[in-house]
Amino acid sequence: MLIGDVARRSGVSARMLRHYESLGLVRPTGRTEAGYRAYSSEDIRRIFHVESLRSLGLSLREVGRALDDPGFRPSELVADLIRQTRERIAGEMELLTRLRRIGAAGPADWEDVLQTVALLQGLGAESAGRRQRAALSSGEESPVPVEALVEAVLNETDPNVAGALRWALERSGEGGLTLLAEGLGSPTAEVRKRAVQAITEIPSGEATTLLRNALTNPDLVVRRYAALALGARGVADAVPTLIDMIVEGANDVDAADALSALAADPASADEIATGLVGRLAHGTVEPSARRRLTQALADIPGTTASRALADLSHDEDRAVALTATYIRKLRDAR
């Protein structure tokens, strides 16, 4: 079969067939009397083999090796092709994400596009200083897509950069809350922690709702951050977790301050005092925890707290009794 016929039937151009011949991939086994290339059925079968292997992403050199090396192991090459394909897909997905974020920023001209690209590159820079500058430069005139900000917040390890990113995210509004809520369910503890920290700095009703839900999160750290933030927002749902924090000595001073702020509401004051007294009466609470609970009663107004302090001034634990007596004197002097 002449080269023109082979090209028509195989779909491989005559030019490419000549290229294959120059590389030694497919050499026509015969010649006509006039000296034209003549391809046998075996030659044509080899052409289809070459095209099949090329469709898998093999280079022509790899194709030649696969067809001619008796010791060739296809499993190794296929594994390498899988790796290369995954890397290529990852690169394409990264590009797609970048393009979508640029589109989300609503650029009006190429200057806006270049500015957004620069900010995105800054957020992903190796230098912590450059990442921080990118976060601080985000604003109305140079907005960073909220999706990129959330991703940066959830992955940032430098505390200074993280603070700048949370600030930028808070300025961007509530758009990132859905993504931050997903972060609360991450399998990585650090990501969950960063997510709740970011939510606590967004002063909105939707953020408060997320924090209420976070009080039942399986992650103890998430629950504690949520409780402290809710206490500052005047949400009484946080009281049980805040009392637990005092008992456990986990940010107990901050927890006591949050309870004090909540106690400004008379209805909450009685609930808080009752909760503290209930834990004091629990037989398994350690002495150090009883002292912290007693100290927490200091800024809780109302008769329930006052009666509890009067009783505690005669407590068997001398440290508790002295603490309660001192607090009573301070309250009487007010």
TrEMBL record:
This is DNA-binding transcriptional MerR regulator. PANTHER family: HTH MERR-TYPE DOMAIN-CONTAINING PROTEIN, REDOX-CYCLING DRUG-SENSING TRANSCRIPTIONAL ACTIVATOR SOXR. GO terms for molecular function: DNA binding; DNA-binding transcription factor activity. SUPFAM superfamilies: ARM repeat, Putative DNA-binding domain. Residues 1-69 form the HTH merR-type domain. It comes from Streptosporangium saharense. It holds the Pfam family HEAT_2. InterPro entries: ARM-like (IPR011989), ARM-type_fold (IPR016024), DNA-bd_dom_put_sf (IPR009061), MerR-type_HTH_dom (IPR000551), MerR_fam (IPR047057), PBS_lyase_HEAT (IPR004155). Keywords: DNA-binding. The keyword DNA-binding applies.
